[in-house]
Amino acid sequence: MEAPQSTAKLAINSTPVGAQVFIDSLFKGNTPLDVALSPGHYEVRLSLPDYYEWEAQVEIGDTDPAPLDVRMVAIN
C-alpha cells in the first residue's frame, strides 16, 4: 500500500489584495489565498487589472513554506 503524498500550504498575499492566482497556468483563486501543494517546482503568477503581472518559480518542500507576499506594481 502506498503512503499518502505529503502536502505543504503556500500562503499567497498581495498588495493590493484581490489579485488572481495562477499556479502552473491553472486559476486557483484570489489573494489572500492558501494553496495545498505537493512537494515540487511550480510557476506562480499573479494578475490584477491596472497592475503589471508578477510571476516566479517556487520550490515546495515537505514543510509549509514561508508566506509569499507580493507587492503589485501599478502600470500608471
Compact description:
The protein is mainly β and 76 residues long. It contains no helices and seven strands. The strands form two sheets. A four-stranded antiparallel beta sheet has the order 3-2-5-6, with no helix packed on it.
Instruction: Please report the distance between the alpha carbons of the first and last residues.
Output: 56 Å
Number of helices: 0
Low-confidence stretches: none
Number of strands: 7
**Name of the CATH first level:** Mainly Beta
CATH fold description: Immunoglobulin-like
| Integer average pLDDT | 91
What structural class results from the helix and strand content? mainly beta
Supply the number of structural domains.
Answer: 1
State the helical fraction: under 10%
Structure overview:
- With 76 residues, the chain is mainly beta.
- The mean pLDDT is 91.
- The protein has no helices and 7 strands.
- The protein has a single domain, classed as Sandwich (Immunoglobulin-like).
- It is elongated and about 45 Å long.
- The chain is 0% helix and 54% strand.
- The strands form 2 sheets. The chain has a 4-stranded antiparallel beta sheet, with no helix packed on it. Strands 4-1-7 form a 3-stranded mixed beta sheet, with no helix packed on it.
- Strand 5 and strand 6 form a beta hairpin.
